[in-house]
Amino acid sequence: MKFGVLQFFSWPGRRNSLDVVYQRALERIDVMDRTGYDAVWLAEHHFTDYSVCPSVHMMGMHVAGRTQNLRIGTAVSLAALYHPLRLAEEVALLDVLSGGRVNWGAGRGFDPVEFKAFGISLDESAERFREAVGIVVAAWQNERLNWQGKHWSFEDVEVLPKPRQDPHPPVWVAASSLPAIDWAAEAGYSIMMDPHSTHGDIAEKHAHYCQALEHHGHGKATREIPMARFIAVAESESKAEEIARSGAAWTVGSYFNPAKVAGFPKKADRLLVDPKADPVQRYLDGVAIYGTPEKVVDQLQALGEEMALSYLLCAPLSHGSFELFTERVLPKFL
């Protein structure tokens, strides 16, 4: 099993300065670099204190300058919000300057606040995202780009620099819904799976993806599928549950409130399921992984079988959780 960290830059209650938020995150990344993690995956968000990292590519360059071993993932570049040629240039430049350590993850996003502020129609966001991903990959693969699409057209454009990795950095697309998974499988893209679906849902969607890949003639033997899970680890079961509950409440209140999912009712249905149910309890019952280090090891071993978990994308819900996971869980799998 491989391990990466889904790195948020959360600012809960704005209790500390942003300098402290960034300093703590970067110190954690330093630890990752020397303890056996495969990659840090940087989360892009805009206009929210849920995670104050509007440029994963700029942050990735800062990470590259202070690490040697860690791969640098984007989870995700919100491709629907970018001009695709600028996106291709920025990710390629990061790959060159990091020594070929980029894992490129691209996603559509779903926050109506972001789309409104950037002047992107929600109705067009999915098709803009898909076309942008295609343009980025084509810009990397071809000496000169020629493209005729619905939203962009380019003629004989030499996009420079080209990435250091040959033919380009590995590509993942965030896919939560079955239509998104079907599109990714048809195009032959690898997927990364979200931290909000239940373990059972992840297992079903992963199986669906593998079947769709085979249907479209794409192999799956060498694919790594990062599966993001919230992690809470403590010396006692009660303390771990307290951390998990607090983290789930912050997530629901900050990111999956009605204002955030207003333009995506199906996402709200999928995440909250029963409007009468407690959405925080839903995270504890089947989304988060929490407990003592020994219990978390057992859970991961079980999930390896139940949902074909081979790449855990950890989202620690506290600094103590990260420390205990690194010191007492991670070594059991290396």
In this structure, how is the largest beta sheet organized? 10 strands, parallel
- Continuous helix count: 12
Based on Cα principal axes, name the global outline: globular
Regarding CATH, which class? Alpha Beta
How big is the Rg? Answer: 19 Å
Distance between the termini: 8 Å
Along the chain, the helix and strand elements come as: EHEHEEHEHHEEEHEHEHHHEHEH
Strand content: 15-25%
The total beta strand count reads: 12
Instruction: Kindly report the average pLDDT value.
Output: 94
How much helicity do the residues have? Answer: 40-55%
Task: Walk me through what this model shows.
The protein is an alpha/beta fold and 334 residues long. It has one domain: Luciferase-like domain (TIM Barrel, Alpha-Beta Barrel), CATH 3.20.20.30. The protein contains twelve helices and twelve strands. The protein has helices at residues 18-35, 56-66, 84-97, 112-118, 122-141, 178-187, 199-215, 237-255, 265-272, 279-286, 293-306, 319-329, and strands at residues 2-7, 39-42, 71-74, 77-78, 102-107, 145-148, 153-157, 171-174, 190-192, 227-233, 289-291, 311-316. Strands 1, 2, 3, 4, 5, 8, 9, 10, 11 and 12 form a ten-stranded parallel beta sheet that branches. Strands 6-7 form a two-stranded antiparallel ribbon. A hairpin with a 4-residue loop joins β6 and β7. The longest helix is centred in the middle third of the chain and has 20 residues, at 122-141. The protein is globular. It starts with a strand and ends in a 5-residue tail after the last helix. The model has no long low-confidence stretch (mean pLDDT 94).
